[in-house]
Amino acid sequence: MEWILTAAGGAVGAVARYGLGGYIAARVSPSFPLGTLTINVTGSFLIGLVMALLSAATPLSADLQALLVTGALGGYTTFSTYEYESLQLALTRSRKSLALNLIGSVVVGLLGAWIGAIAGGSIRAAL
Fold this sequence. Notes:
Elements (H helix, E strand, L loop, with lengths): L1 H26 L6 H22 L6 H15 L2 H13 L3 H32 L1
Helix pairs in contact: 1-2, 1-3, 2-3, 2-5, 4-5
């Protein structure tokens, strides 16, 4: 069952990534991969939020983790795209954009996960 839930969640996450990435790319200069950065940061926030909300008091069920974390958020986040776009920035010697992309995805993504975990813990405590 976990395989099916992972696949279903992955499909939803991939479609969300495609839609948001396309939306941002159509409105921002293509010289910087802002869509990928946005997706990585929001994905980091969401995984922090979901894990804090669903596993603080009771362990996250394997089915729910397969659907939401491995599937949906795994399909939504774009680490391989991030790596490829970073390589392209390095190859074109866009050093400022490369540094911004690397630092943005890693540092701001970590910050997003931390804020998501705090928000999830606060919401769970309020319920």
